[in-house]
Amino acid sequence: MKLDRKYITPFISVVFLAVGISGILMLFHWFDGYTEVVHECLGLFFIFCAAFHILLNWKALKIHFKKGVFIPSLLSVLIISALLIVVEVMNPPIDITIINKVIKAPIHDAFKVLGLDYSAASKRFGTHGISIKGAATIEDIWLNNDMDPEKVIDLITE
Q1: Each residue of 9-52: pLDDT tens digit?
Q2: Most buried pick, 85, 117, 136, 145, via CB within 10 A?
């Protein structure tokens, strides 16, 4: 199939709407969890479609580059992005704050908060070849076992 506007334009338009709508849903925390995966995956597909769109329209875009109209757009997006990142760093979301505190809390307290019994958790980890002996925190579990934090959290929450 040849690169053609009649294919790329509808895809980029529909994916743009889906990414935008899922972003709005995420902003208001509607359908949390579901919207994130849609937003992230379609965001990647949007970049793919945008690359083809740029290739198909390169001649026209070069004219805009020569006029310098992209510079204010680029600077605006960079400044807004930097401001959003600074605000996020200064005021992290409460869920991230809680998770960070739980994974750094004494392991018995963290397991209690998560509704886990230490010995049952130890057995669960043991069946997966993971030792929790000597771990003072949940974070120590993945550090001591040289593994992915997400796998440890998945084992805790299964």
Answers
A1: 888 999 999 999 999 999 998 998 889 999 999 999 999 999 98
A2: 145
pTM (predicted TM-score): 0.63
What per-residue string of b and e applies to 11-29 under the rule 16 or more CB within 10 Å gives b? bbeebeebbeebeebbeee
Residue ranges of the domains in the chain?
A: 5-91, 97-157
